[in-house]
Specification:
The complex is a heterodimer of chains A (313) and B (256). With 313 residues, chain A is an all-alpha fold. Chain A has 12 helices and 2 strands; from the N terminus they run H-H-H-E-E-H-H-H-H-H-H-H-H-H. In chain A, strands 1-2 form a two-stranded antiparallel ribbon. In chain A, helix 5 crosses helix 7 and helix 7 runs antiparallel to helix 10. The chains are: A mainly alpha (313), B alpha/beta (256). The structure holds adenosine-5'-triphosphate and magnesium ion.
Chain lengths: 313, 256
């Protein structure tokens, strides 16, 4: 009797609940998240369109030759004396690539080495020591890196190598330290995600720990390790402030690591304040920014490609 | 126990093992004879894996582990700190429950052990790879794609590859910890046939949860319970006429 009585109540209560859910929070929730997603897509698209349009302005609107822009190292945005102003960005393209690649050359072995140490050599305490260090390094704002570079590293380089101390060498060291946590943490995650059985299987065949690391684990983790380095490079390529403080900001291609140089980002930050919006001087900065955008797309494609090559997951 | 004239490969005396305070192996005395298949059965957590891993000293690096007693392998106590583990593991191969091919080619998987142990001549490596794969009846299936990734093989093929990989270092003993528990019946049957084949040349110790499997492939069977070796006997004897009540209870399915 009792159950017969309670049954319909339950049913109607739950139908009501389902109806209500369907009509109210269900839809509202969907609208909210769809709006969020749309906003992000619109914002991204707007930035890309704006940047592309502004970036092409100097070529289309002002008639600057793209070839000259990309291949000349002659940067004289303000007509000096007799000559026409010239806008060759090669020095900065070179500077950006040089400082990024050099930083990666330092940070990749250090970061991957630290990751191997943490996961393979001292898994019990290595992580406890390194994790806080990495988090700390990530948390330090880039202006602080730049400031330390400026007040400690640059004078040190000046006294050891001569010259001004400002230059690619200072830039690459500061950037290497800045991207080290990115490389280390992603490399660590990659090594952690390898099947644990690999280590035992290799040891059971008689491999030493180092043989296991070098012949099994590193090759198995290679796509992930490369992703770590590429992500670090993407960060280095886009970093402006810290680099600007130590690189010296010379507008010509340096002859050595200890000579001042400049990068795409540093030239933009240095010049965006005092050029008039709409002028050619200002438009070429947008063209530099467009190169940065294309490079970050390239980094993304590279990372996509690498993650498709992952052996486990 | 059984009196035999056969040569002992392992002679284990009063083996005790603790994981911190967990006494996982208790006073184990265990002879293992040449060219026999010894099966180890017992309920989950009784120490089967722990025991078999001690035979090639795989668990010495586990944090908090303590091992006492003797494991004499061909007359030498391998629990001594100065044991050459590289050499031991060349002699005593191991196959795990989960097939763990390296993310390399089929060829490189098999050649890995010989290379580690100093074989570099291409022709010699080719020969070892071919023989090892033939030894596990995988050669015909993979000979045309030796350089394809091993991870592309089926589960059963992967496990046979892992056995081939163990054979490639020319061991005299192969330890197998539940080698078929992740496989389908047909792959399982192939591995069981393989074990019967391999025992002509190798000493085999196999942990299994499957008592029919133990009965099918092994000469001797050992029953473990809560870290103790309860009974070790000819497989036929142990299953038909166990001398310990606890063995009987286990094999008749009264617990475990
Ligand atoms: N690495 C380890 N660290 C600590 N304790 C462990 C470790 N490996 C096993 N043990 C413990 O030792 C005991 C025996 O475990 P073992 O893995 O040898 O059992 P098993 O008989 O192989 O079980 P199963 O049939 O489930 O594989 C268990 O109590 C287990 O919890
Ligand atoms: Mg086990």
């Amino acid at each position: 009797m009792k159950s017969e009585h309670s049954m319909p109540t339950v049913t109607s209560a739950s139908t009501r609940l389902i109806k209500k859910q369907k009509h109210n929070p269900e839809r509202k929730g969907r609208y909210i998240v769809t709006t969020c997603a749309l906003l992000i897509i619109i914002a991204t698209a707007a930035i890309m369109i704006f940047l592309t349009q502004k970036g092409l302005q100097s070529f289309i609107g002002n008639g600057l030759s793209p070839l000259e822009f990309l291949t000349s190292a002659n940067w004289h945005p303000i007509s000096s004396g007799n000559g026409e102003p010239s806008y060759g960005a090669l020095s900065f393209i070179f500077g950006s690539f040089a400082v990024t690649i050099l930083a990666a050359i330092i940070a990749a072995p250090l970061g991957i080495g630290a990751a191997i140490f943490m996961t393979e050599i001292a898994p019990s305490w290595g992580k406890k020591v390194f994790q806080p260090i990495i988090e700390l390094l990530v948390g330090i704002p880039s202006v602080v890196y730049g400031f330390i570079g400026l007040s400690v590293l640059v004078p040190f380089l000046r006294s050891s190598f001569g010259g001004l101390g400002f230059g690619l060498l200072a830039g690459m060291i500061v950037l290497a330290i800045m991207i080290l946590p990115t490389v280390t943490s992603i490399a660590t995650d990659t090594l952690h995600s390898l099947p644990k059985g690999l280590r035992d299987a290799s040891a059971a065949i008689g491999a030493t720990r180092w043989q296991t690391i070098s012949r099994i684990l590193i090759p198995a983790a290679m796509p992930g390790l490369l992703t770590a380095v590429v992500l670090g490079m993407a960060r280095a390529f886009g970093e402006a402030l810290a680099v600007q403080m130590v690189i010296g900001n010379a507008t010509s291609i340096p002859n050595s690591l200890t000579e001042p140089a400049a990068t795409l980002t540093t030239i933009i930050t240095l010049n965006m304040g005092h050029t008039t919006f709409g002028s050619l001087e200002n438009n070429v900065l947008w063209s530099l920014a467009l190169i940065l955008l294309l490079m970050s797309l390239l980094f993304i494609i590279l990372i996509r490609f690498l993650s498709s090559r992952r052996k486990y997951e | 126990m059984i009196a035999t004239q056969e040569k002992e490969v392992f002679d284990i005396r009063e083996l005790n093992l603790w994981y911190d305070t967990n006494h996982a192996l208790k006073d184990i005395d265990f002879p293992i004879h040449e060219k026999e298949v010894t099966a180890i059965i017992g309920p989950s957590g009784c120490g089967k894996s722990t025991f078999i891993k001690t035979l090639n000293v795989m668990n010495r690096t586990v944090p908090g582990v303590r091992i006492q007693g003797e494991i004499n392998y061909r007359g030498k106590n391998i629990l001594r700190p100065k044991t050459d583990l590289v050499e031991l593991r060349k002699q005593v191969g191991m196959v795990f429950q989960q097939a763990t091919p390296f993310p390399k080619s089929i060829y490189e998987n098999v050649a890995y052990g010989p290379k580690i142990h100093g074989v570099h001549k291409k022709s010699k490596l080719n020969e070892i790879v071919e023989n090892s794969l033939k030894g596990v009846a995988l050669w015909e299936e993979v000979k045309d794609r030796l350089h394809a990734p091993a991870l592309g093989l089926s589960g059963g093929q992967q496990q046979r590859l892992c056995i081939a990989r163990a054979l490639a270092t020319e061991p005299d003993t192969i330890l197998m910890d539940e080698p078929t528990s992740a496989l389908d019946p047909i792959s399982t049957m192939k591995i069981e046939e393989l074990i019967l084949e391999l025992k002509q040349k190798y000493t085999i110790v196999i942990v299994t949860h499957n008592m029919q499997q133990a009965a099918r492939v092994s000469d001797k069977t050992a029953f473990f319970l809560m870290g103790e070796l309860i009974e070790l006997d000819e497989t036929k004897m142990l299953f038909s006429n166990p001398s310990d009540q606890r063995t009987e209870d286990y094999i008749t399915g009264r617990f475990g």
